[in-house]
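Revision sheet: structure tokens.
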Amino acid sequence: MSLDKPPGGDSPQPEKAPARPRLNSTGVWLILVMAVLLGFLWVSNQGPARDEITYSFFRQQLDEGNIADVEFVSGDQIYGEFKKAPTVRAPAPDSDADSKKTVEKQLNDNFSVVLIPLVGEELEKELRAKNVKIKAQRVTDSSFVLLAVYMVGTILVFAFIWMMFRRARDQFMGGGILGGFSKSPAKRYEIDGKPVTFADVAGLESVKHDLEEVVEFLKNPEKFQRLGGRVPKGVLLMGPPGTGKTLLARAVAGEAGVPFFSISGSEFIQMFVGVGASRVRDMFKTAKEASPSILFIDEIDAVGRVRGAGLGGGPDEREQTLNQILSEMDGFSQTESVIVLAATNRPDVLDPALLRPGRFDRHITVDRPNHKGRLAIFKVHVRDVPLADNVDLERLAGGTVGLTGADIRNLVNEAALWATRKGKDHVEMSDFEHARDRVLMGPKREEVLSGKEKRLTAIHESGHALLAWIVPGADRVHKVTIIPRGRSLGVTQLLPEEDRLNINESELHGRLCFVLGGRAAEKIVFEQYSAGAENDLAQATNLARRMVTAWGMSERLGPVAYRTSEEHPFLGKEIYEHREFSEHSARLIDEEVARILHAASDRAHKLLTEHRAELEKLADALEEHEVLDEKEIEEILGPSINKRAESNGRAIEVAPSDSTSPDVTPAESRDA
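Predicted:
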């Protein structure tokens, strides 16, 4: 269900025609004044049609006695009237500049002529001799009048536009010079048709159980108030992107059957100081008037970050908005049935005043789904997808450890699109495999490796795959490819099959050995390193540093956590980075990280040297076929030491990283 329109009701509803705006008396007077000014300008430019003639032609007509009267307009120009309109020879309209073709042209009765200098008195005598009537006109400067007319007209136009803009703003924005900005942009979604309920949210059973109490309070608040119970004013949903936090908020509203107001944290911040606080006041006022209701603030970390960490040294618009939110949440009375739900994937940067009891009393972690949850999510998203008989949702759920609900929805959609391109009537298991490879490893690139580069990539990926095959505790190898995908020239994909929240030291050392296997294979075969191991070195260094500083896996440093301060999340590390240990400890950390990485690299060199024949054999097959799956690798190398036991169906794997688990990826790649 989309938030863009209310669910249900397929038949279109008749829309009311918008009311036509009516002009008030002021607008009518402005239009009349503008019409009069335009008419005055038009009339002032009107007059008899006159032909401009040359002074020589004027003298010719004067000598012939064809001038009836003249009027001196200015010192060098006169207007006049012929007794009989003469005809002249003029160039033909369709002739070019070099053509001498002419036609006769009939002039108007009125004319104008520009006089040559020093002809005043002599010309007057000749006019009198020819009995021409002479008129004189006072020379006036009308530029001031025209300038005044234009200025008044311009002012009236701007006044009219301003009045119309103000009238429209007052009608549609609620009045005031900042009325439109101060209004809350929160969208209200009425519960009509088929609402979203907890049944539409697959998995997340513990999270839904925590939210059932909120739903019960909205349905029957007297039940809690009777015994003096206080339901949380605010519920904070924390978790990675795509885990369903927004969907859960809508499901709470659907279960309770109350109005649902939704807004993003970034919509509070504007260029005008104080607008965000005004919007917060209007939003809470609207929610209280519609109580019982739910107010959902998505991405609250955009406005709720810790205060006092900016470079300016004073309160800014974001901090004022946060202060207003804190004040409004404190202002709830015991009888107001308004629940504030908020979602964020950065709870570590939120202000402590926002997280304290009395505001956001309950913090609910919405984590990535486990195997059961992923299976339920797959079942939800394949409802409208025709599946073939060979599709095994259990296997897909087991092979997508670490994916969120949004990732699974994207995977199902990619499989359906791929099957459509192939002209199939049903989506098969191979389509889901293709979609999973596309999501985890990236789309295929147009480049095709050949020659020495293809051999180098095959050796690199074979080193990864062989060590994952023979080092105890590694994840199961699912596929190895040297077809360029995404930003990588080759990929070794590991496929964990069960959820796991912890890992021990020996498994981490095995992981480091696997990560550095591609680089070690290049050194053994080609006796030199390449730039393709950049991503491997970055992953290995990060993992080794966490082993030393966060997990206490160093005998020299002991059980001490060496972490940098995270109290100022807005300042870059270049500006501010407070370390809670000395320079001597930092040097020891670097030495221990280097020692662990050197040990893992030496172990990878030793194992690959002992299995050089298997490495060459696997690289030859990979160079020939470009893609090898688990069964094909087993035919080349034999059974893996990490092969999943059929009796209990368990294999070692690593869950996505959080504060307690290591940061590992399901694939190792050779950089492009």
